[in-house]
Amino acid sequence: MSVPSASYSITMRVHIGSDPVGIGRITTAVGEAAGAVAAVDIVESHPDRLIVDLTVNASDARHAQAITDAVEAVPGAHVHKVSDRTFLLHLGGKLEVTSKVPLRTRDDLSMAYTPGVARVCRAIAENPEDARKLTIKRNTVAVVTDGSAVLGLGNIGPEAAMPVMEGKAVLFKQFAGVDAWPVALATQDTDEIVRAVELIAPAYGGINLEDIAAPRCFEVERRLREVLDIPVFHDDQHGTAIVVLAALTNALRVVGRKLSDIRVVMSGAGAAGVAIVKILQAEGAVDIVVCDRAGILYPGRERLDESKAWVAEHTNGARQRGSLLDALAGSDVFIGVSSKDLLRPEDLRSMNQDAIVFALANPDPEVDPAGARRFAAVVATGRSDEPNQINNVLAFPGVFRGALDAGAREITEAMKVAAARAIAGCVHDDELRPDYIVPSVFDRNVSPAVARAVQEAALRDPQAT
User: Fold this and answer.
1) Edge-to-edge strand list for the sheet holding 77-84
2) CA-to-CA distance for 291 and 309, rounded, in angstroms?
C-alpha cells in the first residue's frame, strides 16, 4: 500500500457518546487501519456527546473508505458525514480574475474603460509592439491542452483536463508571478489545435502546451514556433528535460563523474524522452541508448514514428540491439520516463559502480525506489513522498518569467540549459548528498534564479529575441 498523503485526505464528522476516551478510540482505529490522523477538532460539546471533525490522510479512495468503516465500527461512535478535502478544494475552480486598478470614482472608470481606453487602443493599433507594455500580454501565458495525455490518466478530454490546467496556472502565479489561464480545446486534430492557438495568441506573451499526446505534441510545438512571435514551450517535454539535467548534474557531482564520460540508458521515447536526449546532448552527453516497449532503438528498426526515428539516428552509436536489460548492462545512469515495474531492483546489479537511477514514471516508478537504493548510489523519482523528486515546477515558472522579462520570441536550447544549471546551482556544496540533489519545490530562491539565468541567456542569444 502507498504511503498516506493529503491527495486522499478526508474529514469525518463523528458523533461520540459520553465515553471520556472516545477520541482516543477513534484515532486508534484510524492508526490500526494504517491511516494518518492530520487533525482532531471538537465542533460541539454536550453532556451526552461530542461532535468531532477527524481529518485523516489515506493512500487511495478504497483506503479512505476502509478507515471510515473502522471509525464507524468503534462502539459509541457514528460517522455522520465524510468530506473529501481534495474535491472541496476544487469546488468552483482554483482561479479567479481580480483587477489591478481601482474603480471607485467616475474618473477611475473613464481611464480604465471608456472614453480614456480608446487612446490606448489607438496607440497599440499604430504600434502593435506596445501591447507588451500596455496590456496583460507582457505577463500572461496560455496553458493549452487537448486533454489527450493528462497525467497518467491518458486521453480523458479537455473538460477533465481542466483541474490540471488550473493547477498549472496557480503554480505559475505562486512561484513566478506569471498570470496564466487554461485554454482547453475541444479538438485533437493537429491543424485545428495549431490554428486555434494562432487565433488566441495576440492576448498572450507565451504559450505553455500541456498534456498533449506524442507524437502530435511535436508537430504542434514545431508549427507554432514557426508561426508565432512569442515563446511556445511544451512542458511535458522541456520542463521534464530541464529538471532531469539539473538533477543529473548534481548526481554526477555526488559520484564524481562527468556527463561526457558516462553511459546513459533511457526507457521511454515519448515527449519527455526525446527532449531529455536533446538537452543531455546539448550539455555534452555522448553515449545514450534509448529503449521503448519493443527494446533498444536503432536505425532501420521497424515501425518507428518520426520522433523515434530521430532518436534512433542520434543515439546508440554502437548500434546495439536487444532489450532494456541488454542496454542496462555496463551503464552508469538509468532514466525512466515510461511505465511502472519494468525492472526489478536486482536488475540494477548489471550497472556500473556508483550507478544513478531516475525512475520517473508516476505514481508507480519503473523500479521500486527502496529496492533500487540497495544497488544505486543515487535514486530519484517523480513522487513527492520520496527524496529527490523530479518536479517540473522547479523549471517552468522561472523559464517563462525569464522569457517574458527578456521579451523573448522563443525558448532556445541554450535557455533551457541555463535553467537547468540554475536549478542545480540552488543546491550548494555543503547541502549536496545522495538524497538531496534537487532543491525543494518550495524553495523560493529557485524560480528567481531560473528566471535570471533564462533572461540572461535569451539576451545573449540572437535566436531568442
Assistant:
1) 36-46, 49-58, 5-16, 77-84
2) 12
Say how many Å lie between the first and final Cα of the chain, rounded: 50
Q: Who has greater pLDDT, 462 or 438?
A: 438
pLDDT tens-place string over residues 319-346: 999 999 999 999 999 999 998 899 999 9
Other beta carbons within 10 angstroms of residue 301's beta carbon come to 15
pTM of this prediction?
0.88
Q: How many alpha carbons lie under 13 Å from residue 241 in its C-beta half-sphere?
A: 29
Catalytic residue among 137, 168, 278, 416: 168
Interatomic CA distance for residues 328 and 375, integer angstroms: 13
Whether the bond between 462 and the residue before it is cis, its omega within 30 degrees of 0, is no
Given the residues 81, 113, 133, 258, the one annotated as active site: 113
Whether 298 is catalytic is no
Nearest residue to 179 (alpha-carbon basis) of 208, 141, 143:
141
Q: How far apart are CA 347 and CA 461, in angstroms?
A: 43
113 is annotated as an active-site residue = yes
Q: In 275-363, where do the E strands start and end?
A: 287-292, 295-296, 333-336, 356-359
Single-letter amino acid, residue 430: D
Report the pLDDT value the prediction gives residue 258, as an integer from 0 to 100: 95
- At 1 the pLDDT is 53
